[in-house]
Design goal:
This protein has one domain: Rossmann fold, CATH 3.40.50. It has ten helices and eight strands. The strands form two sheets. It has a six-stranded parallel beta sheet with strand order 4-3-5-6-7-8, with helices on both faces.
């Protein structure tokens, strides 16, 4: 059995290889040792439901090693801010979290990254500060139309989400096995760190831009997590202008189960 220490060693090894541009292939796109070093960028990484900024620890370390500036906050009520869980937290609250970070830190030329539910937040933030964003990356994420909520895209689980919201309850985590995660070390690391998700974050309609701005967009589909909804999002970007679309044969927790490819794709977003 792979131990936690072994897993951390594998993560670090994978990130180190990606950071120096070792030859590898992602979704049919090759990155070689002769690839030019990416210019320094500012990354804002937005985590998914039930998780926190902690999910980005190793990927953020890899991006910083390449010379990038990286911000990976936890959204209100989640991660290291779980003690702030309260009624009334919604999608606007989480968009406020990221928008305030961008404004108060004076960030520009941003690569805005949303993973899973984080795609809802990233889309709403884009609607507020489009001039400050130079590239969008959706990592196995929701890409909402303006006026639609996450529950509108969630398929069968949406009924339980709506019931929880109607009863004033927050939403319990979905078992990690549903997301295709099977590595015991990953499950042992992630499981104790996840928490309740504020229900209204899944109910509130998105304020995403009616039309995507003409900046580079990247969509990454983790095929180890079956999802017709995410497959549909992926197809939107396969032939869209100024877009890249990748498939990774890994779980929805791709920053843990394929950190090297995750880092490589983020570093190539432009």
């Amino acid at each position: 059995m792979t131990t936690h220490d072994d897993r951390r060693g594998l993560l670090k090894a994978g990130l180190s290889l990606a950071a120096v541009g070792a030859a590898a292939s992602v979704g049919g796109c090759a990155a070689t040792a002769s690839s030019p070093k990416p210019r320094p960028r500012t990354y804002v990484l937005i985590h998914g439901a039930w998780h926190g900024g902690w999910v980005w620890k190793d990927v953020a370390k890899g991006l910083r090693a390449q010379g990038h500036e990286v911000y990976a906050p936890s959204l209100t009520g989640l991660g290291d801010r779980r003690h702030l869980l309260r009624p009334g937290i919604n999608l606007d609250t989480h968009a406020d979290d990221i928008t305030n970070l961008i404004e108060l830190e004076g960030l520009n030329d941003i690569v805005l990254v949303g993973w899973s539910y984080g795609g809802m937040v990233a889309s709403d933030v884009l609607g507020r500060v489009a001039a400050k964003v130079s590239a969008m990356v959706y990592l196995d994420a929701f890409v909402p139309e303006r006026g639609k909520s996450l529950a509108d895209y969630a398929g069968p689980p949406a009924a339980s989400f709506r019931q929880a919201a109607a009863e004033g309850r927050d939403i319990s985590p979905i078992p990690l096995s549903v997301f295709g995660a099977a590595d015991p070390a990953v499950l042992a690391h992630v499981g104790p760190r996840i928490s309740l998700q504020p229900a209204q974050t899944f109910m509130q309609p998105s304020k995403a831009p009616a039309e995507r701005p003409r900046i580079p967009h990247t969509y990454v589909r983790a095929s180890g997590f079956p999802s017709a909804g995410f497959d549909a999002f992926f197809r939107q970007f396969e032939s869209a202008p100024m877009s890249k679309a990748y498939k990774l044969n890994t779980s929805h927790l791709l920053m843990f189960t394929d950190p090297a490819s995750t880092l490589r794709i983020l570093s190539e977003a432009a």
